[in-house]
Design goal:
This protein is 71% helix and 0% strand. By secondary structure, it is mostly helical.
Length: 167
């Protein structure tokens, strides 16, 4: 863009959209071939997803100018951060299932039903709990810096008035 190449911008946009479309096609192909008799549910999920996407797009077009962008982006980043904690827990669990990392079950920790464990990424093993705790600690440290330490450093110092000396 800095040299005025509109073609470059078009190609980057095309590549991003094409990649997303390709991933979506692969995802639905895998769902479709997963098991016989699930085709109706795959199509129902596709239609529900399209309906939800249409509602979100309509809301963004109608309310987009009135939404405070900074607050919207802060909330979106928060959701992405929580999702990354979930992904990390599920990734550690998958590595444990593949016997690539150790599996130390925590016996006295609560267990969730399988669907909740997959949604939250919570598996009561030492490795998954430690990995998620470390990631949450990193996020908490970043939040403390961004919302407490950094604003204090950026405040201008106001000098304290010295008491008047007696003449």
């Amino acid at each position: 863009m800095s040299i005025g190449s509109t073609f470059s911008l078009i190609m980057v946009g095309f590549t991003a959209v094409y990649r997303e479309g390709f991933e979506t096609a692969l995802f639905y192909q895998a769902l479709w071939s997963f098991g016989a008799g699930l085709g109706v549910w795959v199509i129902a999920g596709l239609l529900a997803g399209l309906a939800a996407l249409a509602v979100v797009a309509l809301m963004m077009f109608r309310l987009g100018r009135r939404i405070p962008i900074k607050r919207f982006m802060s909330i979106a980043v928060g959701f992405v951060m929580l999702t990354s904690v979930t992904f990390l827990g599920n990734a550690v669990h998958a590595l444990q299932a593949g016997d690539l990392i150790a599996y130390h079950r925590l016996d006295n920790w609560p267990r969730l039903p399988i669907f909740l464990a997959q949604v939250t990424g919570y598996w009561p093993t030492l490795q998954s709990i430690v990995a998620q705790a470390v990631l949450l600690a990193i996020y908490a440290a970043g939040a403390v810096y961004m919302f407490v330490i950094r604003p204090r450093r950026q405040r201008p110092h106001t000098p304290v008035a010295a008491p008047l000396a007696a003449a």
